[in-house]
Structures are given as structure tokens and as C-alpha cells.
Amino acid sequence: MSRIAIDMDEVLADTQAKQLAWLNQQFDLQLTPKKVEGHLLWEALSDEAAKALDNEMRQPDFFADLAVMPHAKSIMEILYQEHEIFIATAAMEYPTSFTAKFDWLAMHFPYIHPSRIVFCGDKSIIHADYLIDDSPRFLSGFKGQGLLYRAPRNVNVTDYPVVENWLDVAKYFSVSLPA
Amino acid sequence: MSRIAIDMDEVLADTQAKQLAWLNQQFDLQLTPKKVEGHLLWEALSDEAAKALDNEMRQPDFFADLAVMPHAKSIMEILYQEHEIFIATAAMEYPTSFTAKFDWLAMHFPYIHPSRIVFCGDKSIIHADYLIDDSPRFLSGFKGQGLLYRAPRNVNVTDYPVVENWLDVAKYFSVSLPA
């Protein structure tokens, strides 16, 4: 049994899908995940759009209705039984998101005990065997084995073992999926 | 430079002072820190009082106006410069406290960067050299050196080096106090 810390945004939750949909609607853009590949979303935006998105993300309910990543629900449920799972999210960047993030986890992953949830801002503070995260910055400070969860922003990053999606996570940790 | 994780309740904030004052007023009691020594506060309470206090602590502003522990302000300010300080609080037990706790830190310790704040529920997840905490339960799971911050509840605990108060913290970490 390993202790595995798992990021929320872009790993459990499809935060970027909501960001792109909001930007496309507000600014009449045609952004797609493909179009923002290779860099942070912010770098693809005008100052005006970046500021507006940042403000929108500070609304208490922005993180409340994010879609769950494909296969995350079924695979997490097994992974949680087979390993010691912690959720580690950089919530301190958006302090107004605390309640929405906590409630989102309770809604979609109700078996995750609150004591397994960590709101932090720097993942070097996490003591675990593995960290699954889409952010190279967070993986670089982590003391255990980092696994890069593939996301548009990190398509060019080659410094860590990659999990392309939740099916890949299942494979990495030899999770036996129901037939 | 060491990485030092510091608990909030009973270490930075005098949570129990507010708990006792509230209980004494609501239930016409004469509780003092001395009277609740040697066990958890909850164990000294009737079921009714325990339930009422738990409910009161779930009000969003319960943690908003706690007193700062004596000397914590002046000593933290120096400690923060000389070491890598993280605040690690078991906020997940009271999810309604997130905002009040974050705001309390910003008000009394404005120089603490949000990335140095961790809301967790199990301090074995904390990767640091030291953890200053009043809870033996949290210290027992911590992988670094635990320091027991003296509180009424832990007067009989002898398993860890003890810091009696913030002046003792300063001494332990050789903080040079202004004359």
C-alpha cells in the first residue's frame, strides 16, 4: 500500500473545460484545449481576458460545478481501497474556493474522508510516496515520486513519468478494473 | 534553516479561551484551563454542552476573533525570517472555519504567504523538519521532530520535547529577541 497524493484541478476536475467555455462566451473566442497547448492558459490570453478570468475564478461557486475527469470516479473508488489516498489541492491561490472544493469532493467522491483532504499552496509540504499532478512546478518541489498528469499546458514536459489519463493511472498502480 | 510546521489552535490562537468563555456563559459553568487539565475539553463536558459547543464551532465566525497566544506575534515575525515556516491546521474537522482561519492569519500574521498555509486533517501528510502542535495524536503521525506545545489537555503527556509557550519556542530555535 502506497500513499498517493492526487491533485484536483486538471486531474480529478476538468477545470480548464470550464475556463475555456467561459472565456469563449465572454470574449467571443474559439479557444480549444489544442489551441492552448504547451503553455499556461494565462499566457494565451489578453491582459483583459486574464484579469476577467482570474476574477471569475474568485467567485465562490466557480469550482462548484466542474466536470469530473473521465474514468476518475470508478478508478478512484478502487484506488482509495487499495492505497492511502490524499487529495492535495493548491486552494490557497483562490481562498474563496475552499467551500466549493470541499463540497465538490463530498459530492463526487463521498467516501473520501475529510482527513484525507489537504488545501495547500506549495506541494513540497506533502509527505507521500507519489504525487499525481499536472503542474511541473509542484512536482519539482515534491520529495516523493512525481507523476505528471497530461494536460494541454504540459505537453512538452518530459521530466516526469507521465499518466495520460485515469486509465493510465489505473495501469500504473495495477488497479483491477471491473470487466 | 529548518522547515517548521506550526499548528494554529492552542499554539498560535487561544481557541480554548473562547470555548471556555462560551461554555461558562451558555451553561452557567465556572470552567477554567486548570479545571480541564489532563484530558480533551470534550471529556469534561456533558453531552448537551459538548453538542452545543460543537455546533457553535461550526458557525462560520467562531474562529474569527480568537486571541493570539502571548508573544506569538513578535516571535513568529523573527522565526519566519530565519526559517521556512508553514502553518498546518486541522481545518477539515470544521470545514465552515476555512475562511475565518485564513482571514485570521492574514490579520494577525500578514507576512505569512498563502502558499505557506496548509489546511489538513491528518498531520502525517506534512513534510517538515519540525511540527509544533498541542495534539499528541498529530505529533505521533508526524515523520519529523515533534514538539509538544503545552496546553491543559496535554499536561500529562511526556512523549515529546515540550515547549511551554512562545518564549520557549524562541529559545528552542535560538531566536534572538529584541531587548
From TrEMBL, chains A, B:
Protein name: Uncharacterized protein
PANTHER family hit by this protein: 5'(3')-DEOXYRIBONUCLEOTIDASE
Listed InterPro entries: 5'(3')-deoxyribonucleotidase, HAD-like_sf, HAD_sf
Domain of life from the UniProt record: Bacteria
Pfam families in the record: NT5C
Family, similarity comment: Belongs to the 5'(3')-deoxyribonucleotidase family.
